[in-house]
Amino acid sequence: MRKKCELCNCAANLFCDSDQASLCWECDAKVHSANFLVTKHPRILLCHVCQSLTPWHGSGPKFVPTMSLCTDCET
């Protein structure tokens, strides 16, 4: 079963550990551009195959949609 965005129920793309929330690209951009403190929240890209956490980490107000694989799906 695919993880859903905590805010809009679309497919989740990122996980924010600080908020303990899975978010889609659009909701992530809205939430993490609200102020300078939430802009600093590190987020982890979810694997586009199995939706596990990937090695990809980033922070900032908005990410360009991208895809990544977890270490299990890479092999």
UniProtKB/TrEMBL annotation:
<dbReference type="Pfam" id="PF00643">
    <property type="entry name" value="zf-B_box"/>
</dbReference>
<protein>
    <recommendedName>
        <fullName>B box-type domain-containing protein</fullName>
    </recommendedName>
</protein>
<feature type="domain" description="B box-type">
    <location>
        <begin position="1"/>
        <end position="46"/>
    </location>
</feature>
<dbReference type="GO" id="GO:0008270">
    <property type="term" value="F:zinc ion binding"/>
</dbReference>
<dbReference type="InterPro" id="IPR000315">
    <property type="entry name" value="Znf_B-box"/>
</dbReference>
